[in-house]
Amino acid sequence: MKLPQLKQVKAYGRKQGLRAKKAIKRFESLARLLKKRDYKKVDEFFFSREELPFSGKEYWFMNFVSNKGDKTQLVLTFGRSELPMSINERVDLNGSVAAVGWLYNGKKKVLWDKAMKLTQEKRGLKTKEFSFTGSYPAYELQIGKNTLLKMKKRRKGAGYEITNTFVRSLGVGLINLYVDVSGVLDGKRFTGSGYVQKVAAITPFIPWRWVRISFQNGAILDFFAPRIPVAEREFMSSATFFDGKKKHALKNTTLKKLAGDRWLLSGDGFAAYLRSYAFKPFVLRGVGEFHYDEYFVECLDFHYKNKEFGKGIGIVEDAYGLIV
């Protein structure tokens, strides 16, 4: 096998460095424009495919939950990596994305788990299986003939959130859209709330845990923590509770997995008891191996500052391993 010459290696390194700088500059520009309420750039970011540098990744994540007291939920995830990678043995080839869609509507149902061709338009992303179209703050998600969800800016709280954490040529940029949802899901009427996200990352995947619980009154409980594999503990965690009017920062928050498919999310002045009712695992393989387990959960009991907030439903992500 003929090895590349030093000149070729240096040229490749310069090319990847320029791609990384371009991606970071693009996201920083997006953050500035959103502060100026230039919402057209939200759609430009959501409906585009990034020019990924070495170790670059981009993916979209959508989660919709019922607010009618049942346990209906839908999750749709699709994305790609600059380095060869498979998700649940589905390899990202020739511009396709690895995609997983699953729901609970009285019982668990996997819609698909495969690689598919993704086409982009000015106001949409489309595959043979689904389409996501619109412009801020109104969007539609169509899946086959039995699902059509219409989204609008949520009535309570912020409509979007942007995170921009780059250090030199590594980091993560993401946008979260928070929406109210109505329509038909798997052939049944559906109303609830949703979380739509796009992530552009130039970094290895490291372990994390994430929790998001939605309550019928519009309250949201949110927790995220990267994890140190050796210490098996969470660090730099962030947790908030939006009570329908105001967002509160939660301190010293930890998530513990208990016996019997149960979880305990607790911290200063609050505790939430969760129980899993559906589960979908993901395995990413490439330069390393990464496990990403999704649990649909119901919140059986939640107390904050001696006040009870009732029941809710949502998701717990438990991710572990390492992949470049």
Please characterize this protein's 3D structure:
Helices cover 11% and strands 60% of the residues. The protein is mainly beta and 324 residues long. The chain folds into two domains: 1-203, AttH-like fold, CATH 2.40.370; 204-324, AttH-like fold (Beta Barrel), CATH 2.40.370.10. β5 and β6 (108-117) form a beta hairpin. The longest helix is centred in the first third of the chain and has 30 residues, at 6-35. It is globular and about 55 Å long.
The level-1 CATH class of the largest domain = Mainly Beta
Oligomer: single chain
**Count of domain modules:** 2
Measure the end-to-end span.
Answer: 25 Å
Topology, number of strands: 25
User: Low-confidence spans: pLDDT under 50, at least 5 residues?
Assistant: 1-13
Report helical residue fraction.
10-25%
CATH topology of the largest domain: AttH-like fold
Mean pLDDT: 85
Shape: globular
Main sheet attributes: strand count, strand direction, barrel closure: 13 strands, antiparallel
Strand fraction = over 45%
Rg calc: 20 Å
* Class per helix and strand makeup: mainly beta
Sequence of secondary-structure elements: HHEEEEEEEEEEEEEEEEEEEEEEEEE
Q: Can you name the CATH architecture of the largest domain?
A: Beta Barrel
How would you summarize this macromolecular structure in one to three sentences?
This protein has helices at residues 6-35, 40-46; strands at 56-66, 73-81, 86-87, 90-91, 96-104, 108-117, 119-121, 124-126, 130-135, 138-143, 147-153, 160-167, 170-185, 188-202, 208-215, 220-228, 233-234, 238-242, 247-249, 254-258, 262-267, 270-286, 288-304, 307-308, 312-323. It is mainly beta.
